[in-house]
Design goal:
The chain has 433 residues and is α+β, with helices and mostly antiparallel strands. It has two domains: 245 residues, DD-peptidase/beta-lactamase superfamily (Beta-lactamase), CATH 3.40.710.10; 110 residues, no CATH class. The chain contains 15 helices and eleven strands. The strands form three sheets. It has a six-stranded antiparallel β-sheet with strand order 3-2-1-11-10-9, sandwiched between helices. It has a three-stranded antiparallel β-sheet with strand order 4-8-5, with helices on one face. Strand 1 and strand 2 form a beta hairpin. It is globular, with a radius of gyration of 25 Å.
């Protein structure tokens, strides 16, 4: 009887061992990440330095950039050049923080102002690719995305119900005002006892009648992109920043982009110092109504409030990496569909904004500008596949018009130095991709 019992026990143990072995052998293999081969194993900004782009044959290019900075009294600038999804050149010029004696490196991050709108537009297209929304969806009203009680209670003009996601992307919403840079005026007008938050801006703007019917005209609107940020939160169930970081930037291989702060004390470790050009308006009342006069670039505006309209900071090199992930080329796998790339870059006429991009005229290429106190930015993707990105840590008296002069600098430098750029890819050379 004991032998039989032992035999049964041994048989059970062997059967269990065989079953365990079978499970181990046949354990499902995790599906490979299709983007894994293109994701940097070392973060891009950790691998870049000026020394990598110190090329004797490009000394003339460096001189052109420095002359441009001197002409416009800029403290510092950062340049990245990409061709066919390969990062060829990344270099900093001047000071990242003159007071601290820190020279600009390509690893420094800078506020990009309205270049942030390109990131937000990509977030919308990611959600559309997942069938979570369509750019043809209405924003307000019973069937709108933002049908929360806050919006339903404040909106009286039924024409708001005609606004679509695409209208917001193209600045065609028809809003009567764009007040995101007027916090103190809004606080006074609304008789608030606190600096206005986004809900206050919603109540102020949406309570008025539209200036024009949605889609019939365009008027540049930061407010519209604040609403797009709200849409991303509503549809994804995540905060705007979290969704963009996890579902847009990381898949694109960008790990050092952040929502910037309003003050010098809130800067990131590798973030530059900003400088406002001299003249009237350099010092303004602090946005929170304290009555304290501050340099406009530090406390003049509530930067995080801008959200998807203008709050992101990054290095030009990482912005180039994002562009490589949304340009329809095959060298770096895109994070959005070919249809989404087409929708973002489809050109109609010079009066119609593209989705996220300012302009996508086929003969000129794609452009995205950004301007804040202390920042001038231009992303220019040329028809031949070359992309130049320059961000400065100093604003000029030209304001948004400064981009025209940066564009002219790009054109001149391309004619003289494009064929001298090194044939390499800094996206992968120093990141182990």
């Amino acid at each position: 009887m004991k032998k039989k019992t032992v035999a049964i026990i041994l048989t059970a143990i062997m059967a269990a061992a065989i079953a365990t072995a079978f499970v181990i052998i046949h354990k499902p293999v995790p599906k490979p990440d299709p983007l894994a081969s293109m994701k940097p194993k070392i973060h891009l900004n950790d691998s870049l330095s000026n020394a990598l782009s110190d090329q004797p044959e490009l000394a003339g290019l460096d001189k052109k950039v420095r002359n441009y900075m001197r002409q416009w009294h800029m403290k510092g600038a950062s340049l990245a050049i990409m061709r066919n999804d390969s990062l060829l050149y990344a270099k900093g010029y001047g000071w990242a923080d003159e007071g601290e004696g820190t020279e600009m490196e390509p690893s420094h991050i800078l506020r990009m102002a309205s270049v942030s709108k390109l990131i937000t537009a990509v977030g919308i297209m990611v959600l559309q690719d997942r069938d979570s929304l369509s750019i043809k969806d209405t924003v307000f009203g019973p069937s709108g995305i933002l049908n929360d009680s806050l919006f339903n209670a404040v909106i009286k003009d039924k024409n708001y119900h005609k606004i679509t996601v695409e209208h917001l992307l193209r600045h065609q919403g028809g809003f009567y005002r764009d007040p995101l840079f007027s916090s103190n005026d809004v606080r006074t007008q609304m008789q608030l006892d606190h600096p206005p938050v986004k809900e206050d801006f919603y109540k102020l703007v949406l309570g008025h009648r539209l200036r024009f019917m949605p889609g019939e005209w365009e008027k540049y609107s930061n407010f519209g992109y604040l609403l797009l940020s709200e849409i991303i939160e509503k549809v994804s169930g995540m905060s705007y920043e979290e969704f963009i970081r996890e579902e847009v930037l990381r898949p694109a291989g960008c790990y050092d982009m952040h929502i910037a702060g309003s003050y010098y004390s809130e800067r990131f470790d590798n973030e530059v110092r900003y400088y406002t050009h001299d003249g009237d308006g350099k010092f303004v009342e602090e946005y929170n109504g304290s009555g304290v006069m501050v340099e406009r670039c530090y406390g003049g505006n509530n930067i995080p409030l801008l959200s998807g309209a203008g709050a992101w900071c990054a290095s030009p090199a990482e912005i180039a990496r994002l562009v490589a992930s949304i340009d329809g080329r095959h060298e770096v796998e895109d994070i959005i569909s070919q249809e989404a790339v087409f929708q973002m870059t489809e050109y109609f006429d010079k009066e119609t904004y593209s989705l996220g991009w300012n302009d996508t005229a086929p003969e000129k290429g794609w452009s995205r500008t950004g301007t804040l106190s202390g920042t001038c930015a231009l992303v220019k993707y040329f028809p031949d596949g070359e992309c130049w990105i320059l961000i400065t840590n100093t604003s000029t008296w030209k304001g948004p018009g400064q981009a025209r002069y940066t564009d002219a600098l790009f054109k001149q430098c391309r004619e003289l130095y494009s064929d001298k750029l090194p044939q390499r890819d800094l996206f992968v050379m120093n990141t182990g991709s």
